[in-house]
Design goal:
By secondary structure, the protein is an alpha+beta fold. Among the domains are: 292 residues, no CATH class; 52 residues, Zinc finger, ZZ-type (Wheat Germ Agglutinin (Isolectin 2), domain 1), CATH 3.30.60.90; 79 residues, Up-down Bundle (CREB-binding Protein, Chain A). It contains 20 helices and 13 strands. The strands form 3 sheets. It has an 8-stranded mixed β-sheet, with helices on both faces. A 3-stranded antiparallel β-sheet has the order 12-11-13. A two-stranded antiparallel ribbon has the order 9-10. A hairpin with a 5-residue loop joins strand 9 and strand 10. Helix 2 crosses helix 3, helix 16 crosses helix 17 and helix 19 packs across helix 20. The two termini are 47 Å apart.
């Protein structure tokens, strides 16, 4: 098995206009920055590494505005059933998710959000054309699949309380929608936009109603129309939250919220069920806490409950308790949870070449190594000589002790399967930019355009080999033209293109053959060089940093040259960059045709456009590239809206049937 992170890029999710306008007095942000990561799993089948599983996650760090601060969102997850043995699929995929949540916990993230929504029939999440005999799980089964994974997370002390969006946010009368986390592709932004538009339209119809009415009734009606809006700001119940409560009450369990056991976790968010506590005690996950840890836990319990509480009988709450007693029991639960944190490292998975580089080994290796993050809980971490045995799980899911020497080696000494040094990337500081893996829609478009399918194992092997080729040759064309006459792919040399007839290209052999089939085309063909050389690989650390610095310098130069109107500019490279930009406007070959200069300029323009927010940017093609990015986002949003509408329809049909 090989687990590889293929992308890690910074993005910004813009807030929809209706939501922004409604909560403008709440200082609601215009956008939420996040880091998008894609994790892909390969298995070597018959000597070929086959893509079997892909996971997209969005990380909202500490620099995010409220309410997205320190949250992670499991956006999309997809797989094909070619893993061998097939019965291990759930175990391995659960291990990957558990390891990721453990990594997120160690990084300081406090909450994880999951929308358990299966794809609609005919829709593909990540993999294009999956096997016909692969069943799509129903909503109930998919939700239980996630809950089983989180149940194991609770046993390992990775996750504390598990709840849902309805109980955590919507049912609280003191909160409005500005307190609900806002994620790209989630159910709530789209549904909130529809609710607000409906409220605005109904308010306009009421205020613009015809007929003669008395002034008193008009004023009374207008005041009643304004009251829901006023409630947003004067502490009353937000009508948007009321509509949400009515809409999702029957399907609330599909919107899962998990509190991660990080250093800053609140005691009340680490309370777990009785059976989980018994499992932790039985398996030695909870140890006898040192006196300092007990004192800290008692202090936190006193702050929450007003007094200290101790004893195992208070860790498990009874049914008939007063509010004060419940608060005391929460403090006792936290005492046990903090004590468990001291032994958290016992149940954490192994470090698996953290983030970025291919990690080869057992599937139970974690995404965040315990050796790199020794402060795995609120209590004092164990010293290096007291490191316990790390635990793996065998085929039956039972814990197997492994000597810690195998996991405590430094990353500098790690080697890949070929004996070469394994380079570890810090994906929180370095960007892993892969154009066709940056979003699931880009990967789907790549697979659809090139007929990269997963419906059979032999096709999945071919698709996987092409995906790996594109990863190693990122500057190579993503779509290869075929010869109109012989149907062969034109991957080298020249292709002879007709500028009049659509999609007509000939290879060199068929162009020279007068008897080759050209259809009805009798136009002059243009010879375009096909460049099949990809990006250079095997760069050293210094070379990578120097390359990144050069990219930023060139982007700065492009921004200067686009705005500069002086014929005698002091910058020595200004005129040269202006000539390059002019070449991009008049070139007939273009980047898609293989022009190297156009490719380089286009890459720089794309990087600039992803960050630019100006409505009148003078840089060539900036607005056009941003328009293309918005089109991809709209395609993604359309699919998310279909999922949301289908979920609402399914729920309403069930309610009406009952």
């Amino acid at each position: 098995m090989t687990i590889r992170q293929v992308t890690s890029t910074d993005r910004k999710h813009e807030v929809r206009e209706a939501i922004k306008a409604r909560y403008i007095k709440k200082d609601y942000p215009d956008e939420f920055p996040y880091r998008c990561k894609c994790i892909v799993v390969f298995q070597n089948i018959d000597g070929v590494d086959v893509v079997l599983f892909a996971l997209y996650v969005y990380e909202h760090g500490e620099d995010n505005p409220f309410p997205n601060k320190k949250t992670v969102y499991v956006s999309y997850l997809d797989s094909v059933h070619f893993l061998k043995p097939r019965k291990m699929r759930t175990f391995i995929y659960h291990e990957i998710l558990i390891s990721y949540l453990d990594y997120a916990r160690a990084k300081g993230f406090e909450q994880a959000f999951i929308w358990a929504c299966p794809p609609l029939k005919g829709d593909d999440y990540i993999f294009y054309a999956k096997p016909e005999d692969q069943k799509i799980p129903k909503e109930v089964r998919l939700r239980q699949w996630y809950l089983d994974m989180l149940d194991e997370c609770q046993r390992r002390n990775v996750v504390g309380k598990v709840t849902n969006m309805y109980d955590q946010y919507l049912a609280d009368n003191s909160l409005d929608f500005s307190c609900v986390p806002y994620f790209e592709g989630d159910y709530f932004p789209g549904e909130a936009e529809n609710i607000i538009k409906t409220l605005n339209e109904s308010g306009e119809k009421k205020s613009g109603g015809g007929g003669k009415k008395k002034a008193a009734s008009k004023s009374k009606k207008s005041s009643s129309n304004k009251s829901p809006e006023a409630n947003v700001y004067n502490g009353g119940k937000d009508i948007v939250m009321q509509k949400f409560c009515e809409a999702i009450e029957g399907m609330k369990h599909s919107f899962i919220v998990a509190f991660l056991n990080c250093k800053t976790a609140k005691p009340e968010n680490l309370v777990v069920p009785k059976k989980i506590m018994e499992y932790r005690k039985a398996n030695g996950i909870i140890c006898d806490a040192v006196d300092n840890t007990k004192l800290e836990a008692e202090k936190s319990a006193a702050v929450i409950g007003g007094s200290t509480a101790s004893g195992d009988d208070k860790a498990i709450s009874g049914e008939n308790k007063t509010d004060a007693e419940e608060k005391k029991s929460d403090g006792a639960d936290e005492e046990v949870s903090e004590a468990a944190a001291a032994e958290k490292i016992k149940s954490s998975s192994e470090a698996s070449g953290e983030n970025g580089s291919s990690a080869v080994g057992t599937p139970s290796k974690g995404a965040g190594g315990s050796d790199k993050n020794p402060e795995s809980g609120p209590s004092c971490p164990p010293t290096e000589e007291k490191l316990p045995l790390s635990k793996k799980r065998n085929v039956d899911g039972k814990a197997v002790a492994v000597p810690s020497e195998t996991t405590s080696s430094s990353s500098e000494n790690k080697l890949d399967r070929n004996g070469k040094p394994l380079r570890i990337l810090d994906d929180d500081t370095e960007e892993i930019d892969c154009e066709f893996f940056n979003s699931r829609q880009c990967f789907l478009d790549l697979c659809r355009g090139n007929h990269y399918q997963f419906d059979e194992l032999r096709r999945a092997k071919h698709t996987s080999m092409m995906v790996l080729w594109h990863l190693q040759n990122r500057e190579a064309p993503k779509f290869v033209q075929q010869c109109f006459a012989c149907a062969r792919e034109i991957s080298s040399g020249y292709r002879h293109h007709c500028n009049v007839c659509p999609d007509l290209d000939l290879c060199t052999d068929c162009f020279r053959d007068p008897s080759a089939n050209r259809g009805s085309c009798n136009h002059k063909l243009e010879a375009i060089r096909v460049d099949n050389q990809g990006a250079s690989s095997g760069l050293t650390e210094e070379q990578r940093k120097e390359r990144q610095r050069n990219i930023q310098l060139h982007i700065t130069l492009i921004e200067h040259a686009s705005r500069c109107t002086s014929a005698t500019c002091k910058s020595s490279n200004c005129q040269k960059m202006k000539s390059y930009l002019k070449h991009g406007l008049v070139c007939t070959v273009k980047a898609s045709g293989g022009c190297k200069l156009c490719k380089r300029i286009w890459t720089l323009l794309r990087i600039h456009a992803q960050q630019c927010k100006s409505n009148s940017c003078p840089i060539p093609q900036c607005i056009a590239i941003r328009k293309r990015i918005r089109q991809l986002q709209q395609k993604q949003q359309a699919m998310d809206d279909r999922r949301r509408q289908e979920m609402n329809r399914h729920y309403r049909m069930g309610v009406s049937g009952n």
